[in-house]
Amino acid sequence: MTALLARRHLLLIAGAFVAVAAPARATPAIVAAEIAKLLDGKVAKRGRVKLEVPVLVENGNAVAMTVSVPEKTTAKLTAFHIFAEGNPLPNVASFHFGPRAGAAKIATRIRLTTSQTVIAVALFDDGSAWTDSVDLLVTLAACLDDA
Amino acid sequence: MARALINVPKIARKGELVEIRVLINHIMESGQRRDSMGAVIPRDIIHSLVCTYNDEEVMRADFFPAISANPYLAFSTIARDSGTISFTWTDDHGTVQTEHATITVA
């Protein structure tokens, strides 16, 4: 009986180690908390901002991403913030627009570790915040293993 | 630091929307990968890119490890006066690289 218990304990301890060893990952809750911190009590409405990423990603190491505000707005765009719910870290990038900014559009290439939801938040100088998200599938993940 | 490619039109009409495309060579080591001995490869990324047009800010980007190696960025400005468009990248080692492009507004 004691031997059995001891083995159970060992298994529990082993289980705990596995949990610790697993790579830390962003979750939808962590991303939601990051966005809440960014918005500071405001609520981001869906619309205005458009996030373009392929829905089916073949190579997660370089995924073309475009964020834009397609329609003319009276308020001036101040920033885009991009988040990934399934990457090791919740933040992807932030873009702040200065007085000499042109069109409300940015394009870059990002890494995605797994199939997940990518979220863009746009902030305007009238205090409003708008959001868009894309659920996508990643077939080849951005590598987390050896170099 | 590295080789940078900058694509800005040399000549633009006044009031024209000018597309800017930049790419810089950088490994953008995420700090998430491990080497063959199982040790974490330390993070080494460009975390900031600032673009100015005659010393006024166009755009400022904060990069996280989720930006691909050799970070590429496309954005725009409005051609108002002739002058210099400058780009400054900063990486985790504190290395700063600044490149310039000249634009003539007719």
Report the structural category of chain B: mainly beta
- The termini of chain B sit apart by 34 Å
Q: Which H/E pattern describes the elements of chain A? A: HHEEEEEEEEE
Please name the CATH topology of chain A. Answer: Immunoglobulin-like
Beta strand % of chain B: over 45%
Q: Spans of chain A with pLDDT under 50 lasting ≥5 residues?
A: 17-22
User: What's the name of the CATH homologous superfamily of chain A?
Assistant: SoxY domain
Q: How would you sum up the major sheet of chain A?
A: 6 strands, mixed
List keywords for this structure.
heterodimer, A: 147 residues, alpha+beta, Immunoglobulin-like, 3-stranded antiparallel beta sheet, 2 helices, 9 strands, 22% helix, B: 106 residues, mainly beta, 5-stranded mixed beta sheet, 0% helix, elongated
Write the layout of secondary structure elements.
The complex is a heterodimer of chains A (147) and B (106).
Chain A: H1 2-21, H2 28-39, E1 45-46, E2 50-52, E3 56-59, E4 63-68, E5 77-84, E6 91-97, E7 105-110, E8 116-124, E9 129-140
Parallel strand pairs in A: 1-9, 3-9
Antiparallel strand pairs in A: 2-4, 4-7, 5-6, 5-8, 8-9
Chain B: E1 4-7, E2 11-12, E3 17-24, E4 46-53, E5 56-63, E6 72-78, E7 83-91, E8 96-105
Parallel strand pairs in B: 2-8
Antiparallel strand pairs in B: 1-3, 3-6, 4-5, 4-7, 7-8
Your description of this structure?
Chain A has helices at residues 2-21, 28-39, and strands at residues 45-46, 50-52, 56-59, 63-68, 77-84, 91-97, 105-110, 116-124, 129-140. Chain A has 147 residues and is an alpha+beta fold. Chain A has a single domain (24-140), classed as Sandwich (Immunoglobulin-like). In chain A, strands 1, 3, 5, 6, 8 and 9 form a 6-stranded mixed beta sheet that branches. Chain A has a 3-stranded antiparallel beta sheet with strand order 2-4-7, with no helix packed on it. Chain A starts with a helix and ends in a 7-residue tail after the last strand. A 5-stranded mixed beta sheet of chain B has the order 2-8-7-4-5, with no helix packed on it. Chain B has a 3-stranded antiparallel beta sheet with strand order 1-3-6, with no helix packed on it. Chain B is elongated. Chain B is mainly beta and 106 residues long. Chain B has strands spanning 4-7, 11-12, 17-24, 46-53, 56-63, 72-78, 83-91, 96-105. The model of chain B has no long low-confidence stretch (mean pLDDT 95). Chain B has a single domain, classed as Immunoglobulin-like. In chain B, a hairpin with a 4-residue loop joins strand 7 (83-91) and strand 8 (96-105). Chain B has no helices and 8 strands. Chain A binds chain B through residues 23, 61-63, 84, 87-89, 91-103, 105-112, 142-147, and chain B through 17-18, 30, 32-36, 41, 52-54, 56-69, 71-78, 80.
